[in-house]
């Protein structure tokens, strides 16, 4: 079985070809064209610019991904149809609709967050072989737009336990990097600076740690960093490193605390990270330590699958197919619309 997937929800144009015999997932192609260099000078993603770039890139990327393996060797298509930037989503959706309708191929609309969850299946063979052993699993989705704690009881069976009430975890990294004039995107930059800093130098707040629920908030932490910066007249390299390390420590502590608090109430067999922030080394180390101490299995996506990519969309679509979910076919393909705020818990198709 071969799946062609398209992802264009934000500032990455991505196409993947995934082959599977049901026992393993094999990536024949996984192309990601990142627009980061273009958006960097604006300090964040400019939706209009992102859409134009998707338009320029998507067809050449499709050509180079498909190569000689023509569409008649594809069993079905998948496309990210939300959540994301409407103009960016539209590009991928329109291309997928055109391909699916003209080639009479079924099309699965995939939720971007569900795609991030399935980056774990792409990264861990054991999960593909023995997934039933690991359910229910608790998944922390941490990206530039979302921070959600999700209980997954099976394919397509999600219960959201909590989410951020304001900024997403990745967004807070991006904003702090901006305050410190370190560039965009902030996550990897801050984590690099943090390596040279003292994480106890600043005692930043751990927002909502006592809220007795599974929700998050990162905007107060952002403000606390801003105040600390304003107080300092001159800021040297060591200050930047200390602020980065102390900030990262605060974010990681909150993420760990809330996730492992949920385990006390919900019996889970595995913990997973998903989304761009899953690339964070400290986060992975702390999750590993804590999971080991509780004898829980911990899965995380390999670096190449933690950021936005189409392979994770193809993997999610494969499981939709395996679970006999209905894809869009025929004229229905043309009615697919971007769902900018698509909630994962409404994901049952
Ligand atoms: O999942 P993703 O690629 O895009 C969205 O769906 O939003 O996540 C991007 C986010 C950005 O906010 C970026 O700063 C963050 O992931 N990120 C990191 C790291 N690498 C990327 N955050 C913390 N530490 C990292 N190493
Ligand atoms: Zn993403």
From TrEMBL:
SUPFAM superfamilies: Actin-like ATPase domain (SSF53067). Residues 29-314 form the Gcp-like domain. Binds 1 Fe(2+) ion per subunit. One of its GO terms (molecular function) is tRNA N(6)-L-threonylcarbamoyladenine synthase activity. The keyword Transmembrane helix does not apply. It catalyses: L-threonylcarbamoyladenylate + adenosine(37) in tRNA = N(6)-L-threonylcarbamoyladenosine(37) in tRNA + AMP + H(+). It comes from the Bacteria. CDD domains: ASKHA_NBD_TsaD_bac. One of its GO terms (cellular component) is cytoplasm. Keywords: Acyltransferase, Cytoplasm, Iron, Metal-binding, Transferase, tRNA processing. Its main location: cytoplasm. Gene3D superfamilies: 3.30.420.40. NCBIfam families: gcp_kae1, T6A_TsaD_YgjD. This is tRNA N6-adenosine threonylcarbamoyltransferase. It comes from Candidatus Komeilibacteria bacterium CG11_big_fil_rev_8_21_14_0_20_36_20. The lineage of its organism: Bacteria, Candidatus Komeiliibacteriota.
């Amino acid at each position: 079985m071969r799946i062609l997937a398209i992802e264009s929800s934000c500032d990455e144009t991505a196409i993947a070809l995934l082959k599977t015999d049901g026992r393993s997932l094999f990536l024949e192609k996984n192309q990601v064209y990142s627009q980061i260099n273009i958006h960097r000078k604006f300090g964040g993603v400019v939706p209009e610019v992102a859409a134009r770039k998707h338009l320029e890139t998507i067809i050449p990327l499709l050509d180079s991904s498909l190569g000689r393996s023509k569409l008649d060797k594809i069993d079905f298509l998948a496309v990210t149809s939300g959540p994301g930037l409407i103009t960016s989503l539209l590009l991928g959706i329109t291309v997928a609709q055109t391909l699916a309708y003209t080639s009479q191929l079924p099309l699965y609309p995939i939720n971007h967050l569900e795609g991030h969850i399935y980056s774990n299946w792409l990264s861990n063979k054991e999960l593909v072989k023995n997934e039933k052993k690991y359910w229910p699993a608790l998944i922390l989705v941490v990206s530039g737009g979302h921070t959600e704690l999700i209980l997954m009881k099976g394919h397509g069976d999600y219960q959201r336990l909590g989410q951020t009430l304001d900024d997403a975890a990745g967004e807070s990294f991006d904003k702090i990097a901006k305050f410190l004039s370190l560039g965009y995107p902030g996550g990897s930059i801050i984590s690099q600076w943090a390596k040279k800093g003292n994480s106890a130098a600043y005692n930043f707040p751990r927002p909502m740690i006592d809220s007795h629920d599974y929700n998050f908030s990162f905007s107060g932490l952002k403000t606390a960093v801003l105040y600390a910066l304003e107080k300092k007249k001159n800021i040297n390299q060591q200050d930047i490193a200390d602020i980065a390390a102390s900030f990262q420590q605060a974010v990681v502590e909150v993420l760990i605390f809330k996730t492992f608090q949920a385990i006390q109430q919900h019996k889970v067999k595995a913990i997973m990270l998903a989304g761009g922030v899953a690339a964070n080394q400290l986060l992975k180390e702390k999750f590993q330590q804590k999971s080991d101490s509780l004898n829980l299995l911990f899965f995380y996506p390999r670096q190449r699958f933690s950021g936005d990519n189409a392979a994770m969309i193809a993997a999610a679509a494969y499981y939709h197919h395996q679970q006999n979910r209905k894809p869009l076919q025929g004229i229905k393909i043309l009615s697919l619309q971007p769902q900018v705020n698509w909630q994962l818990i409404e994901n049952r198709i």
